[in-house]
Amino acid sequence: MIVDDLDHLAEMVANLVVEKLDKRQQLIDAQTLAALAGVSRDWVYQHRSALGCVPLSSGTRPRLRFDRDLALERIRELKGESVRRARRKAGRASVELLPVRDDAQ
């Protein structure tokens, strides 16, 4: 009975370790995230809080890592917000726009 309990406990611990390792492997650095998302590394650092950065130490300038899936989702949200803002600004043009001509006729 005790051996079975210990085997079960060992299996549970092993599963937790594997789960934690899998999550850790999904953490990527700013350069990799920037390349995946089509933005600059500086842009990633400027938006690190919104992207859910994970500091690897408690020093003054810790290395940062990002959960790949979460950060990419948040980048899509941020880029969508930028597009919406630009469209709103464009909708408030203070100049009269030129009419579009159809030269095909």
Offer a few descriptive terms.
3 strands; 105 residues; single chain; mainly alpha; 3-stranded antiparallel β-sheet
Task: Walk me through the structure.
This protein has 105 residues and is mostly helical. It has one domain (2-88). Helix content is 59%, strand content 9%. It has four helices and three strands. The protein has helices at residues 2-25, 30-37, 41-46, 68-91; strands at residues 27-28, 53-55, 64-67. The protein has a three-stranded antiparallel sheet with strand order 1-3-2. Strand 2 (53-55) and strand 3 form a beta hairpin. The chain is elongated. The relative contact order is 0.10.
Number of strand elements: 3
Q: Beta fraction of the residues?
A: 5-15%
Number of helices: 4
Summed over residues and divided by their number, the pLDDT gives a mean of 81
Q: Which structural category do the helix and sheet elements fall into?
A: mainly alpha
Helix content: 55-70%
**Mind describing the biggest β-sheet?**
3 strands, antiparallel
Q: Judging from the principal axes of the Cα atoms, what is the shape?
A: elongated
How many domains make up the 3D coordinates?
1
Strand order of the largest sheet: 1-3-2
- The separation of the N and C termini measures 89 Å
Q: N-to-C SSE series?
A: HEHHEEH
Rounded to the nearest angstrom, the radius of gyration is 24 Å
Q: Runs with pLDDT <50, length 5+? A: none
